[in-house]
Amino acid sequence: MRIRSDMSNSAPLGDQRTTAWWWVRSIVSWTLLIAMIAVLAMTIAVPRITGSTPYTVLTGSMEPTYPPGTLVVVKSADPASLGPGDAVTYQWESGKTAVVTHRITEVEYAEDGELQFVTQGDANPMPDERPVVPEQIRGKVWYAIPYLGYVNNFVTGKQRSILLIALVGGLLAYAAYMFASAARDEFRNRRNRETDTEDPVTDELPVVAAGSSIMPN
Question: CA 10 from chain center: how many Å?
Fold first, then answer.
């Protein structure tokens, strides 16, 4: 006698591939990919496109807003548009390369009418000794990213361009791999579902309960 086998208790192969671990792996992979793209854009691509300059905070004078190791991206600004509360990066001494990022606390004018800014670190008890003139200001802090300043210190100039190309290529390759893997899994799942919809049959002998007998006709 041929009877239909019971498949209700066995999960389709396609469903077995979409287990909790599969979902966790996919979510983590895409989250890391998006995070890497965002970090790459904010640290290298956006400053390059907008003409901004990334700097690294080295001291604790701007804590807790910008602790040491913070990457601050500074964008050029018209000195006349700056006012109290703005965080600016400026040359510590006019014409020198060393820069400081502090906050403007006051705007004043010298006796000759020259615009000046009184600055102070958020963590400093007193304002800076000397007022800052417009020629010293490199720009206004546009945005900041904690901890990435340490990376910025080691990757500069030509290395940054090489890293940008390498990271973009790697991310594109990874994205292509993820799409290809998803397409392959979907194809396999569809094929497995088609196989599972078939109704296999098996040969099975009649089962006789123990202690019973079959009466002859």
Answer: 40
Pairing of strands 71-75, 87-91: unpaired
CA distance 145 to 72: 7
CA distance 102 to 123: 10
Cα separation, 79 vs 131, whole angstroms: 14
Tokens of 130: 């000397």
One-letter amino acid identity for 20?
A
- Note the pLDDT tens digit of each residue in 167-210: 777 777 877 877 787 777 777 777 777 776 655 544 444 554 44
Question: Taking the model in full, what pTM does it have?
Answer: 0.63
Report the DSSP beta bridge partners of residue 91.
99
Q: Are 39 and 148 in contact (CB under 8 A)?
A: yes
CATH of the domain spanning 51-149, picked from 3.40.225.10, 3.40.50.720, 2.10.109.10, 3.40.50.150? 2.10.109.10
